[in-house]
UniProtKB/TrEMBL annotation:
Belongs to the Toll-like receptor family. The gene is LOC115411748. It comes from the Eukaryota. Keywords: Glycoprotein, Immunity, Inflammatory response, Innate immunity, Leucine-rich repeat, Membrane, Receptor, Repeat, Signal, Transmembrane, Transmembrane helix. GO terms for molecular function: signaling receptor activity. It is found in: Membrane. It holds the Pfam family LRR_8. The chain crosses the membrane at residues 12-32. This is Toll-like receptor 13. Signal peptide: none annotated. InterPro entries: Cys-rich_flank_reg_C, Leu-rich_rpt, Leu-rich_rpt_typical-subtyp, LRR_dom_sf, TIR_dom, Toll_tir_struct_dom_sf. The keyword Ion transport does not apply. It is a single-pass type I membrane protein. It comes from Sphaeramia orbicularis (orbiculate cardinalfish). The keyword Cell inner membrane does not apply.
Length: 952
């Protein structure tokens, strides 16, 4: 029994504990301080943060904290980010990393600590980063690295520890000794004066790229094959002093896999040392960079003797003039980079000795025309002549370049084109002519360039596109014409561009009248059309006779942003007719004062709509009815006073909603509920009211974990005046609504207590409860009968237990009915069959002058006897009449009567007779009973005292 009670009690305590846990557990909000979430990355850059925010969701895959003021990292900063793969802490003020800071970042792949103030990396500072593959700690002040600093980085492949204060070379060994899979090591700009291979002896290193540039190295000695996999070696800008460089590579096979070498900036190294250096790689080298280096002609001749060399970079060497013998020995060179050399002229035969030449870069020089040297190179694939001073293109400038794929002529001074200039470029795919002064094409693109796919003509002086000017470019896919002065688009100006997918006409002078020519309807496969920043204006919203885009059924993106208008504007209701596959519509800043309700009826697949920066002030919900797939809506700065349209519009798929700089001050619950898919909400710079009208919104901002409210912690109060400038989320809203959480807590607590009390009461007071139930039942039926005037059919109703029936039949019945003549009511004889028992009992009691209760232990345990007693006692107390006679057939101790509170009370006040005490003098017993039956029904305090023995 005790064990059962203990189990019951423990269960109650467990339920209480669960209740406390669930009520007290906080829900993480999705409104971040100084951060926003974009594609699974928490962007917290440039937010003046002094510590890592603790409200970043634990499910992000990246955290960008660059350019803040964080000075210390500690273990609590990144305690629970199980899927974080990228962490960027660049450009902070971090000088200390606490123990265990990264211990829980088990999925981290990239860690960036560049440009901080670290001067020491202590023991196991990167503990836990066993899956890290890239570590960048460039531009710190690191002097001290302990032997176990990088012990945990067993998976690291790329390490950039450049621009620090590491020295001597033994420190490099401490850095990489625990990184068996390291492939790229950047240790440039430290204080390494020597580089010895012996410190790395007996190590298996997978290193493929090593950058030790900008170190004051005077001795470079490799006497063991420690770099069997090294492919790229950067030695640029070694020797900041004039000490002679000692280059000691005992065996070429020790660097026999190096294919890319950079020796740029070796200004103080004598020619013989550089020659010796180059000879160490004469069996594998493919790419050589010799930028900003003396002895260029001699070094070119030496390097070109390397039979495997194919790419030669010679930037910033101030060559000015390229002589015909400069590349005479470079028969194997396929790519030459001569950018930024101030070249003014190139001898005609400079490249004739390079039969394998594929790429020539002559960008950012001082050439006045296309050099003759670049002609007649039938294998040339790419020619870069950008950023020179070329003003004219002649017909034979690109003669015989029939294999050329890429031609860059941008940022020159070309003013006109000739019809013959591109005639030999039959395989050209990319042509860049932007940022020149071109005003006319002169049929340069008619019947030429059949394989051109991309043409850049932006930032020129074009004013018109005439019919057939691109007729020979049937392969063109991307056409860039922005930032010109184009006003005229003739009807068939785009004829032949059947494969064009993108055309950019931003920032020109195109008008609505220009669109009326329907020149775009020839571009059947167009996917993107940008007409932003032009002069397109419509006088009203009446339908156009001939919609300008009616044939562009494949168009996905249309931009009409920022039109230069002299007055407020409209959009024709059928402007978008034909755009059945449009996904993105941008009509920002068009000075529109309204939008036709059926404007979007032609774009059923629209997913993104931007109507920001207009003077609309009201949006109809009908506008959005035809676009059920909308996911992004931008309605900033349109002077909206109400958001009621959101409740009525079908925007169930909207995920991104931007509503900056409007006039509404309250965000209702209905508005938010109407956007069930919303994941990003931008409400910056609105005039919020700081009162209870916004209480639900404030609570939602802080508690919801689906929608990110951008920069919510910087929202300011505008009304009332005494709260202007206060942060919206600092408003105390506890008085605005009932604390449902507290109510739930209170109700649940009360329920638990009630359950506990009920359980204990039922367990320990089961008998008393049963007794109380019978009392209530009796009272209920007594209430129905007590006011009825029921005639007395019997002198007494006898209430007894069935097991006491022999005494009733042999003793009581013969004496009272047979001898004394009383008419008794007995349940086994006089109850009406078919009626409910409780009704028979009640009618019998109220239909009799008296009720005789024959009491025994069996009587006390009987349900129906107990009910008969209750009804009789209710009649006694309610009518205040002497109607109850108690007859005890046996002695019953007082303690057995304790559960029967009503009977104990009766015994203290009421007449009773005891058959056992009568003994042999039964005549006295029957006489007392007769007298009791004869007494009237006056008040109980006037009744005849018949007790044979007084009871307490």
């Amino acid at each position: 029994m005790l064990t059962g009670r203990r189990k019951h009690f423990n269960l109650i305590i467990f339920i209480c504990s669960l209740h406390v846990i669930f009520v007290a557990l906080p829900v993480a909000g999705f409104s971040l301080k100084g951060c926003r979430i974009s594609r699974g990355v928490a962007i917290c850059s440039e937010s003046e943060l002094t510590a890592v925010p603790h409200d970043i969701p634990r499910t992000v895959k990246g955290i960008d904290l660059k350019r803040n003021k964080i000075s210390k990292l500690q273990a609590s900063d990144f305690r629970d980010f199980p899927v974080l793969t990228e962490l960027n802490l660049q450009q902070n003020k971090i000088s200390e990393i606490g123990k265990g800071t990264f211990s829980n970042l088990i999925s981290l792949k990239t860690l960036v600590l560049t440009a901080n103030r670290l001067h020491k990396l202590g023991d196991d500072v990167f503990h836990g980063l066993g899956n890290l593959t890239e570590l960048r700690i460039k531009a710190n002040r690191i002097k001290i690295v302990t032997p176990t600093t990088f012990k945990s980085l067993s998976s690291l492949k790329r390490l950039d520890i450049s621009d620090n204060y590491l020295h001597p070379i033994a420190k490099v060994y401490e850095v990489i000794q625990h990184m068996p899979h390291l492939q790229q090591l950047n240790i440039q700009k430290n204080q390494l004066a020597t580089f010895y291979s012996y410190v790395l002896a007996n190590r298996s290193i997978e290193l493929k790229s090593l950058d030790i540039s900008q170190n004051p190295i005077v001795v470079f000695r490799i006497t063991a094959n420690v770099f069997p996999n090294l492919k790229s070696l950067t030695l640029a800008n070694l020797q900041k002093t004039k000490h002679k460089l000692i280059w000691d590579v005992r065996n070429k096979t020790m660097v026999g896999q190096v294919s890319t070498l950079d020796i740029s900036g070796l200004k103080h190294a004598p020619l013989d040392i550089i020659t010796k250096l180059l000879q160490s790689f004469n069996s594998s080298l493919n790419t050589l960079r010799m930028n900003q280096i003396p002895h260029v002609p001699a070094l070119i001749r030496i390097s070109c003797t390397i039979p495997t060399l194919s790419k030669l970079q010679l930037q910033l060497n101030k060559l000015r003039v390229v002589r015909s013998d400069l590349f005479q020995l470079c028969v194997n060179i396929a790519e030459i980079d001569l950018n930024k050399n101030d070249i003014e002229s190139i001898d005609d035969n400079s490249f004739t000795s390079l039969p394998r030449l594929r790429i020539v870069s002559l960008s950012t020089n001082k050439l006045l025309s296309v050099p003759t040297a670049t002609r007649n190179l039938p294998r040339l694939l790419e020619l870069d002549l950008s950023s020179n001073k070329i003003d004219t293109l002649k017909c034979d400038d690109f003669a015989n370049l029939t294999n050329l794929r890429k031609l860059y002529l941008h940022q020159n001074e070309i003013s006109a084109l000739k019809d013959c200039v591109f005639r030999d470029l039959t395989r050209l795919e990319i042509l860049k002519l932007q940022s020149n002064k071109i005003s006319k094409f002169n049929k340069a693109f008619e019947n030429t360039l059949p394989n051109l796919k991309t043409l850049y003509l932006h930032s020129n002086a074009l004013t018109a596109i005439k019919n057939g000017e691109f007729s020979g470019m049937w392969s063109l896919q991307n056409l860039s014409l922005q930032i010109n002065h184009i006003k005229t688009l003739e009807k068939e100006c785009f004829n032949g561009l059947t494969n064009l997918t993108v055309i950019i006409l931003q920032t020109n002078a195109i008008t609505a009248e220009t669109l009326a020519n329907n020149s775009f309807n020839l571009l059947k496969n167009l996917r993107r059309l940008d007409l932003s920043n032009n002069h397109i204006q419509f006088k009203n919203s009446s339908p156009l006779a001939s919609p300008p885009f009616s044939q562009l059924s494949h168009l996905n993106t249309l931009a009409l942003t920022s039109q230069h208008k002299r007055c407020k504007g409209y959009l024709p209701s059928n402007l978008l007719q034909g755009l059945t596959n449009l996904l993105d519509l941008d009509i920002r800043n068009m000075q529109l004062i309204s939008l036709p309700k059926d404007l979007l009826s032609h774009t059923p697949r629209l997913e993104r709509l931007d109507v920001s920066a207009n003077d609309i002030s009201y949006l109809s919900s009908d506008l959005f009815a035809p676009i059920p797939n909308l996911t992004g809506l931008y309605i900033s700065n349109i002077r909206l006073w109400s958001l009621g349209f959101l409740k009525r519009a079908n925007l169930s798929k909207v995920e991104f909603l931007q509503m900056r700089k409007n006039q509404f001050s309250v965000i209702s619950e209905d508005v938010i509920r109407s956007l069930p898919s919303l994941v990003y909400l931008d409400l910056e710079w609105n005039s919020f009211t700081c009162d209870c009208d916004n209480s639900w919104f404030l609570k939602w901002v802080q508690d919801n974990n689906q929608t990110q409210v951008f920069n919510a912690y910087d929202f300011l109060c505008n009304y009332p005046e005494d709260l202007q400038g206060m942060k919206l989320l600092e408003l105390d809203i506890q008085s605005c609504s009932v604390d449902t959480g507290f109510i739930c807590f209170t109700c649940t607590t009360c329920l638990i207590i009630l359950t506990l009390v009920t359980s204990f009461t039922y367990h320990f007071l089961k008998g008393q409860l049963t007794y109380a139930y019978y009392i209530f039942s009796a009272w209920l039926f007594d209430t129905k009968k007590r006011n009825k005037q029921v005639p007395n059919q019997y002198d007494a109703f006898v209430s007894y237990n069935t097991l006491d029936e022999p005494w009733v039949c042999r003793e009581l019945l013969p004496k009272l009915e047979g001898e004394q003549g009383w008419r008794l009511c007995l349940h086994h004889r006089d109850f009406q069959p078919g009626r409910p028992i409780i009704e028979n009992i009640t009618d019998a009691i109220y239909g009799s002058k008296k009720t005789i209760c024959v009491i025994s232990r069996r009587y006390l345990n009987s349900e129906w006897c107990s009910r008969e007693m209750q009804v009789a006692s209710f009649r006694l107390f309610d009518e205040q009449k002497d109607v109850l006679i108690l007859v005890f057939l046996e002695e019953i101790p007082t303690y057995l009567l304790s559960p029967y509170y009503r009977m104990r009370k009766l015994l203290k006040k009421q007449t009773y007779l005891s058959w056992p005490r009568a003994g042999e003098h039964t005549e006295v017993f029957w006489e007392k009973l007769r007298q009791a039956l004869m007494t009237g029904e006056g008040p109980a305090d006037e009744r005849l005292q018949l007790a044979l023995v007084d009871r307490p």
